[in-house]
Design goal:
The chain is mostly helical. The protein has two domains: about 35-150, Serine Threonine Protein Phosphatase 5, Tetratricopeptide repeat (Alpha Horseshoe), CATH 1.25.40; about 155-205. The chain is built from ten helices and no strands. The longest helix has about 40 residues, at about 25-65. The protein is extended.
């Protein structure tokens, strides 16, 4: 037992000696840790608050009826909450309304913004698909090809392949179009109506 007490005393002495020698460093590192801890906590709370506000604005823009109010809210999301998932979703939502109202320039503007600023791969892919599709309809085939190739979420593989088939068909690149239509068919495996449409387009090329 005496030996244990002696060992304990030696450990305490060594610890005290170490603390005295490194007192300044220990205090400095402790202060840095405390600052970092509180700064991180503050940042996280601010970020969570921002996410909640953005979520509320996104829900509101879908519920209100006045179109001008929708535009104001989406603009606010783009400016003040661009780093949240809701800004790009709202931009696509507004783009869809513009497209329905045949204001194609405004629709493309919103799709492009969403594609360039979305923090979710799936949302960026959706925006680029919408944008590329509109460019194709308007005859801007090269630009449509550029944005179609930016679609990089696996869930959009079939839609991307179908779209690339359409673009290459318009560019009179039949072999490339045929290859993309086949990829789209393999992806859907004839399980939905879109597969039937793709099969018709493929047969038309042949």
């Amino acid at each position: 037992m005496a030996l244990d007490l002696k060992d304990e005393k030696d450990i305490n002495d060594k610890f005290s000696e170490f603390f005295i020698k490194n007192k300044r460093k220990i205090i400095l590192y402790s202060i840095i840790f405390i600052i970092f801890y509180f700064a991180s906590s503050f940042y996280m709370s601010q970020d969570e608050k921002k996410q909640l506000i953005a979520s509320d604005l996104y829900q509101r823009v879908q519920l209100i009826n006045d179109f001008n109010d929708k535009v104001i809210i989406v603009d606010k999301l783009k400016i003040d909450f661009a780093n949240t998932p809701y800004s790009s979703r709202a931009s696509i939502y507004l783009g869809n309304i513009y497209q329905k109202n045949k204001d194609f320039d405004k629709a493309k503007e919103n799709y492009r913004w969403a594609g360039e600023n979305a923090i979710e791969k799936s949302i960026a892919s959706l925006a680029n698909y919408q944008y590329a599709s509109m460019l194709l309809i308007q005859g801007s085939y090269d630009d449509s090809l550029l944005y179609a190739n930016k679609i990089n979420d696996f869930g959009f593989f079939g839609l991307k392949a179908d779209l690339l088939g359409d673009i290459n068909a318009k560019l009179e690149k039949k072999d490339e179009a045929r290859n993309f239509y086949k990829q789209a068919l393999d992806f859907y495996k004839d399980k939905n109506d879109l597969a039937k449409v793709i099969k018709i387009k493929l047969d038309a090329l042949n």
